[in-house]
Specification:
CATH class of one domain: Alpha Beta
Oligomer: single chain
Radius of gyration: 18 Å
Strand order of the largest sheet: 6-7-8-3-9-10
CATH superfamily of one domain: P-loop containing nucleotide triphosphate hydrolases
Helix content: 25-40%
Shape: globular
CATH architecture of one domain: 3-Layer(aba) Sandwich
Length: 257
């Protein structure tokens, strides 16, 4: 699937020297990452490598101990106080899709997507509902608008979560293992949506164990282990000729599974 727009040289995301620890347990060590507009960056590595923590720090769901995060011109310095206004602007720019959906169970599917638009963007309920229905139609879920999330399959709930993030018009989408809680057949539906977003030029950072997606959709493959980036580059080059022994061990374990 070819892209509508080529990857640009304009950097939407810059992470500089990010570090995070919980007491004596170091989770991130001096992580730096640059993501050009319109590109897809896949992050892989063993469990506990720090991949999800990088995404959570980007969205300030976790506060880094040191380093800088810049997303769409919004600069956050670790340790500096972040105003509610700046935090809201950062999270508008960086849509987040979680492993376990995080939908409100007591609200309809439509309300799950519309409420954030009303609260964050100031849209009227009518405007928000129109945008929500547009996105639900795109996801093939228009008939689920009045259902509650529990009446939807895992794959449908994840597509609803993607629609909710897209409704705020983000510059970058952060995906934290979006298919790991789904059966393989259901996960394919979510991956197809993500491939379509990539083809349209959406900037994406994806923590994943889906090696096919990483090889065929990503522009950059980042390998993490023990809280740091140990290798990065063209996905096919990294996968066919990894330079780091830890990368070789991880790829063998995943590809031979």
């Amino acid at each position: 699937m070819s892209r509508i727009a080529p990857v640009s040289t304009n950097l939407v995301v810059q992470v500089r020297n990010l570090a995070k620890a919980y007491g004596d347990h170091v989770v991130l060590r001096d992580v730096s990452l640059s993501v050009p507009e319109g590109s897809v960056t896949a992050m892989i590595g063993p469990s506990g490598a720090g991949k999800s923590t990088v995404l959570r720090c980007m969205n300030l769901l976790e506060k880094p101990d040191s380093g800088e995060i810049e997303i769409d011109g919004h600069l956050i310095n670790a340790g500096a106080k972040v105003s509610a206004r700046n935090l809201a602007a950062l999270r508008r720019s960086a849509g987040m899709v979680f492993q376990h959906f995080n939908l409100f169970p007591h609200m309809s599917v439509l309300r799950n997507i519309s409420l954030p638009q009303e609260r964050v963007l100031g849209r009227s309920r009518e405007e928000a509902n129109a945008k929500s229905m547009e996105l639900l139609t795109r996801m093939g879920l228009a008939d689920k608008a009045d259902q509650y999330p529990a009446r939807c399959s895992g794959g449908q709930q994840q597509r609803i979560a993607i629609a909710r993030a897209l409704a705020l018009g983000p510059r970058v989408m952060l995906f934290d293992e979006p298919t790991s809680a789904l059966d393989p057949e259901v996960g394919v539906e979510v991956l197809e949506v993500m491939k379509e977003l990539a083809a349209e030029g959406m900037t994406m950072i994806v923590v994943t164990h889906e090696m096919g997606f990483a090889a065929n959709v990503a522009d950059e493959l980042v390998v993490m282990a023990d809280g740091g980036i140990i290798e990065s580059g063209d996905p096919h080059e990294v996968m066919s000729d990894p330079q780091h022994e830890r990368t070789r061990r991880f790829l063998r374990a995943v590809l031979e599974r």
